[in-house]
Specification:
This protein specifically catalyzes the removal of signal peptides from prolipoproteins. It catalyses: Release of signal peptides from bacterial membrane prolipoproteins. Hydrolyzes -Xaa-Yaa-Zaa-|-(S,diacylglyceryl)Cys-, in which Xaa is hydrophobic (preferably Leu), and Yaa (Ala or Ser) and Zaa (Gly or Ala) have small, neutral side chains. Keywords: Aspartyl protease, Cell membrane, Hydrolase, Membrane, Protease, Transmembrane, Transmembrane helix. This is Lipoprotein signal peptidase. The chain is α+β, with helices and mostly antiparallel strands. The protein contains 5 helices and 3 strands, in the order H-E-E-H-H-E-H-H. A hairpin with a 3-residue loop joins strand 1 and strand 2. It has a 3-stranded antiparallel beta sheet. It is globular.
């Protein structure tokens, strides 16, 4: 069953790369276009850093961090209990991994990440589909850890001392 999360990750990465290809071929030549007036535009940006442009130009740092995160997620997939609540956790990891891979592909191939979604009703950095995956996966992870997964005491002594 470990095969399914990797297939899902691959599909999400392909979707991300298709949207970035569309942005490169259709949006880069014009720069920006209104999508929903007063709410969202499509604006082509070459992001050479991380969120908000921090660590600009540190491509190999991002590749290394993505590699480490990827190894940690794969290890977690293998070691995680095969229970329902952990399936939700696997979903959050798939989103984070797909987003990280999608953006590292850009960095390695182009030297920058293609961003193109821009909220116009407030000041927020331009972002892409991979960024949405990472943010959604991280929020899902936090919610699961806070409200879904409950650690069981190892024995009755632990449950008595823990209260």
């Amino acid at each position: 069953m470990i095969f399914l999360p990797f297939v899902a990750t691959l599909i999400l990465v392909v979707i991300d790369q298709i949207t970035k290809y569309i942005a490169l071929t259709n949006l880069k030549p014009i720069g920006s276009m209104v999508f929903i007036d007063g709410f969202m535009d499509f604006t082509f940006v070459e992001n050479r850093g991380a969120a908000f442009g921090i660590l600009s130009g540190k491509i190999w740092f991002f590749v290394l961090v993505t590699f480490i995160i990827g190894i940690a997620i794969i290890y977690a997939f293998i070691k995680m209990p095969k229970t329902r609540e952990y399936n939700y956790l696997r979903c959050s990891f798939v989103l984070v991994l797909a987003g990280a891979i999608g953006n590292v592909i850009d960095r390695m191939i182009r030297g920058y990440v293609v961003d193109f979604f821009e909220f116009t009703f407030f000041d927020w950095p331009v972002f892409n589909v991979a960024d949405v995956y990472v943010v959604a996966g991280t929020i899902l992870f936090a919610l699961i850890m806070l409200f879904v997964i409950k650690e069981e005491p190892k024995d009755k002594k632990d449950s008595i001392t823990k209260g």
